Amino acid sequence: MTDLWQDAMDHAVSAARGAGQVVREALLEDRMVMVKSSSVDLVTQTDQKVEQLIIQSVKEKFPTHRFIGEESVAAGEPCVLSDEPTWIIDPIDGTTNFVHRFPFVAVSIGFSVNKQRAEPAGRASGPGQQRAGPAGPGQQLSRASGPSQRAGPAAEPLLAFLQVEFGVVYSCLEDKMFTARRGRGSFCNGDPLQVSEQKAIQQSIIATEFGSDRDPEVVDKIFSSLRNILCIPVHGIRSAGTAAINMCLVASGCVEAYYEIGMHVWDLAAASLIVSEAGGVLMDVEGGPFDLMSRRVIAANNRTIAERISGEIQAYAPARDDAAAPGADP
Ligand SMILES: O=P(O)(O)OC[C@@]1(O)O[C@H](CO)[C@@H](O)[C@@H]1O
Ligand SMILES: [Mg+2]
Ligand SMILES: [Mg+2]
Question: Which stretches of sequence are listed as region Disordered (predicted)?
Answer without folding.
Answer: 118-152
